[in-house]
Structure prediction request, 228 residues.
Amino acid sequence: QKEVEQDPGPLSVPEGAIVSLNCTYSNSAFQYFMWYRQYSRKGPELLMYTYSSGNKEDGRFTAQVDKSSKYISLFIRDSQPSDSATYLCAMRTGGFKTIFGAGTRLFVKA
Amino acid sequence: GAVVSQHPSRVICKSGTSVKIECRSLDFQATTMFWYRQFPKQSLMLMATSNEGSKATYEQGVEKDKFLINHASLTLSTLTVTSAHPEDSSFYICSAHSPLAGFTDTQYFGPGTRLTVL
Prediction:
């Protein structure tokens, strides 16, 4: 079993839809949870960063962490074609080593 | 802030040659830098962690003698792929971490280097 599971998709939605991306994990020691966006042939870009459980909102993006269920989510409201990318969840314990999910490819159709 | 650059962005080389990739933190000092490898449609696989002035820590299965990492300063780390072969063709991405106030305690990624070995 992988430490972090993420459905690779692809996920295709119409413009304006609410997108829900999810990851599950097995290591209860994870404390820091991140979401990165990666465009084709580019490096990942940090979108959201959360410590421990709870919700965090930034513009159209909301990140949720449920440590009791070992489940994290990223919601994108009013999705735009420019949101089309691969979204990687990532998490780590107190150290620096970060474990990444496989990434979900998202396509937002105009 | 928190900009990381990589050079070159793309390199094509012949089998058997060595290739050096540079990773620079442009507007902050990075105490720790990471090197990742990413195959098409796959996630990032950590290759090694390097701290300024000390030897890199390699992940299991990564050949130290093949992937030479030097972290000579707080703003520069280099990855040298020695005697490259076609199976080394991949997308190499570095990231940098800074514990300074004002930065989230996480990693900032460079744009990546596409290596193609013929």
The first strand of chain A starts at residue 4 and ends at 5. Chain A is about 0% helix and 55% strand.
